Amino acid sequence: MRHSRPLAIAVVYLVVLAVLGGAGIAVGPRLATEVQDLAQKLPETSKRIQNGEIVVGLVGRGGWESQQIREIDRLVQSHMGEIVGYAQQATTSVLK
Question: Which residues, in sequence order, are CB contacts of 54 under 8 Å at separation 6+?
Answer without folding.
Answer: 45, 48
